[in-house]
């Protein structure tokens, strides 16, 4: 399996890169600045996401989009996916998106999302709204093999690796203690595991411990 990881120097991208490398997979980091790569031996493409072409990506079995945008740039979650789905249109390459938890549903009718709750942090609301909009746009894409993977509400960059996770659906869920938690490293395990599972296509799943 040949894997490309966009944003491989970011926290989630690096975790997925490290997990892929640890399994001996053929992985390429797709980054704007190769000097930020901690592993200087890994294959890389040094290019901005918005400059990527079909030729750059079509040889990969899976492309992981770990692109992150904050502050005034949150709208790029939509524009970046528009670009990536445009260049991957009608190819066999699968597109995995590192998503957000804010758009997970908290009701059976799928009308109320986690970010609609009064307890959802105001500081993260603009990002959650932007990522939710990007997901809604993505749902309209029928000519790309995409998978949107939402982490738990508490997505812990410093969390430990347990090797355990629960794969859930669109509805917000918690463990037996009432916690919605996943570490970046366990999330990365789930993402790499999903690469070998073909039944998940053009849908959103979620991952928690």
List the helices and strands and how they pair.
Elements: E1 2-6, H1 11-22, E2 26-31, E3 43-46, H2 54-57, E4 62-65, H3 76-87, E5 94-98, H4 125-138, E6 145-150, E7 154-156, E8 166-168, E9 181-183, H5 184-194, E10 203-208
Parallel strand pairs: 1-2, 1-4, 2-3, 4-5, 5-6, 6-10, 7-9
Antiparallel strand pairs: 8-10
Helix pairs in contact: 1-5, 3-4
Question: Quick gist of this model?
Answer:
Residues 7-195 form the NAD(P)-binding domain. This protein has 209 residues and is α/β, with parallel strands linked by helices.
Structural class: alpha/beta
Which CATH first-tier class would you pick?
A: Alpha Beta
Q: Outline, from the CA principal axes?
A: globular
Oligomer: single chain
User: Order of strands across the widest beta sheet?
Assistant: 3-2-1-4-5-6-10-8
Biggest sheet, open or closed, and with what strands and sense? 8 strands, mixed
Find the CATH topology. Rossmann fold
Would you count the extended β strands for me? 10
Strand fraction band?
15-25%
Q: In DSSP terms, counting alpha (H) and pi (I) runs of 4 or more, how many helices?
A: 5
Task: Give the low-pLDDT segments.
Answer: none
Named at the architecture level, the CATH assignment is 3-Layer(aba) Sandwich
Helix content: 25-40%
**Cα-to-Cα separation, first versus last residue:** 26 Å
Instruction: Spell out the helices and strands N to C.
Output: EHEEHEHEHEEEEHE
CATH superfamily: NAD(P)-binding Rossmann-like Domain
Number of domains: 1
Q: What integer is the average pLDDT?
A: 96
Radius of gyration: 16 Å
Protein name: Rrf2-linked NADH-flavin reductase
GO molecular function: oxidoreductase activity, acting on the CH-NH group of donors, NAD or NADP as acceptor
Organism: Vagococcus fluvialis bH819
Domain NAD(P)-binding: 7-195
